[in-house]
Amino acid sequence: MNKTKLQQLGQLLNASVTAKVLAGSEWVAAGGKKHPEAGDALQTENSCFMITRVDGSDLHGMEIGGTLTALETKLLGWALQQGGMKSLSAASDLERQAKRLGDWIQQSVAAGEWRAEVPDRMELRNRLFDGMVPFLLLCEQVGDKEPSYAELEKTIRTFIADDTLLIPLREHEWLVLSSDSVLSEADADGDELLGPEETKELLGTLAEGLQQLITGEWGGECHVAVGEPIVPSENVVRIVSTLRETMFLGRKFHVGMQIHLPWLVHLERLLSGIPETVRSRFVEEMMGRPDLFTDSETVATLDAFFSMDCNVSETAKKLFIHRNTLLYRLDKIKHEAGLDVRSFNDAVLVRILLLLYKVTKRK
Question: Domain PucR C-terminal helix-turn-helix, which positions (predicted)?
Fold first, then answer.
């Protein structure tokens, strides 16, 4: 609501009206309901705060000096609810319902309510069924290339099954929930029962395809995190939190990667929780050669070696080099660092050192 409208409203109510943003925690602490919506009001001793828009855990609204009557509160709340629907640019019912669900997810994540179940009042609850695959998208397009809800939903439906839900969360961030039938459709072998590893491999392939589709359509930078099938009515808050953490860790420890998988960042999650001073001291004490990881060839060799589960032959193929060339590089690392990555214990240490170095070198 702009300044002119606030002034006009103030004249009608014969009271001061100012714009204000209130944190969700402040709203609840002051006695407001846990999941507020546009039009909700909170009367205090000297003023009344009324919500005009919910943006995640932030409540945008107006503070009205004095006390409103019950009728004034009800009428003004009704008007704001109608205006809130119009502010979505005459969006479809699906978009409005998806935004409402996204706001609830945001509020629950901010409150740390990981086990919160989607309430019955959410219209989309009846479209959440067991075994949906969650994708978290973070898409930052350039200039005016930002897709609308309808455009993005239409594009995603060309790649993933029709029974897919697109839910807006924070700015540039979207949650996609798709039927697990997308896995059987993507399975080239047509296996009726997919094992855990086959499922994870297919999920990674789907995430990569989705990322390429979006960047090909709108450009910019797009990151995709994907999780295993869930029961969204019970686990949607938890999975959003998990996929956000996965994406954060992936962008922190693996700069340049756009696909982020929860089952591949267990070590990164552990290292991220260690105090920075401890991490830095560990790197300094363990590094035989401080400049070892400044060599791009050494880093590329180690990244490939660890991604191939320390298999020499497969790593050589991945790097398109002769097996003996790879062995020479590994021997060089052993000589300079004093650690042999073909030994399990040394491989663990080098893996940790490499991850920590990638973070500390950007400080």
Answer: 299-355
Give residue 138's Cα distance to chain centre: 6
Task: Say how far apart CA 110 and CA 116 lie, in whole Å.
Answer: 12
Query: Phi/psi of residue 26, each to 5°?
Result: -65, -40
What are the boundaries of each domain within the chain?
Answer: 3-86, 93-264, 274-360
Cβ atoms of 354 and 293 closer than 8 Å = yes
Q: Class of 274-360 per CATH?
A: mainly alpha
Over the Cα atoms of the chain, what is R_g? 26
Going by pLDDT thresholds of 50, 70 and 90, the confidence category of residue 102 is very high
- One DSSP character per residue, 98-125 reads HHHHHHHHHHHHHTT-TTPPPPTT-GGG
Provide the 10 A C-beta neighbour count for residue 45.
Answer: 5
The backbone torsions φ and ψ at residue 10, rounded to the nearest 5 degrees and listed phi first, read -60, -40
* pLDDT of 89: 40
Domain 93-264 belongs to what topology? Alpha-Beta Plaits (3.30.70)
Q: Measuring CA to CA, which residue among 40, 48, 42, 38 is closest to residue 18? A: 48
Q: How far is CA 118 from CA 40, 218, 270, in A?
A: 20, 32, 30
Q: Are the C-beta atoms of residues 240 and 175 closer than 8 Å to each other?
A: yes
* pLDDT tens digit sequence for 175-212: 999 988 888 777 666 656 778 888 999 999 999 999 99
Structure tokens at 92: 């479809």
41, 49 Cβ separation under 8 angstroms: yes
Tokens of 144: 């005016």
- Residues 302 and 333: their CA atoms lie apart, in Å, by 9
